[in-house]
Amino acid sequence: MDGKGVFTKLDVGVLSAEQLKKLKQFKIKTRIENEKYLRSHPEVEVLIGDFLRVLLLKRPTDVREFAADHFTNPNLHETISPKAERSSNVE
After folding, report:
1. What does the domain layout of the chain look like in residue ranges?
2. Buried b (16+ CB within 10 A) or exposed e, 31-64
3. Among 11, 37, 46, 81, which is least packed, fewest CB within 10 Å?
4. Which CDD domains does the record associate with it (predicted)?
């Protein structure tokens, strides 16, 4: 390659005004969709909160392995279900 291609003259890190507008709209739409999903699934907040609580109490050296063990625990459903039910009743 001689480095004289079309892309050497373009600043590929800069978006046009139209692209920026579309990106902003996409971000807003995605955020709204995420909020709707999280509001319809209060168990997500319970799952994450419970994980963070246990993580900070135990402070494991290998966080990835701890997370894998935590979320693949066959008894996780029994631990989270009552908390999730209480959480959904509060709203």
Report:
1. 13-90
2. eeeeeeeeeeebeeebbeebbeeeeeeeeeeeee
3. 11
4. DD_RIIAD1
DSSP state of 62: -
CB burial class (10 A; 0-12, 13-18, 19+) of residue 83? middle
Longest dimension (CA), the chain: 66
Q: Count other Cβ atoms within 10 Å, centred on residue 71.
A: 10
Per-residue pLDDT tens digits for 16-43 = 889 999 999 999 999 999 999 999 998 8
Predicted model pTM: 0.59
Give the separation between CA 24 and CA 27, rounded to whole angstroms.
5
Cα–Cα distance, 88 to 29 (Å, whole number): 25
Helices (H), 1-91: 17-40, 42-58, 63-71, 76-90
- Tell me the one-letter amino acid at 63: V
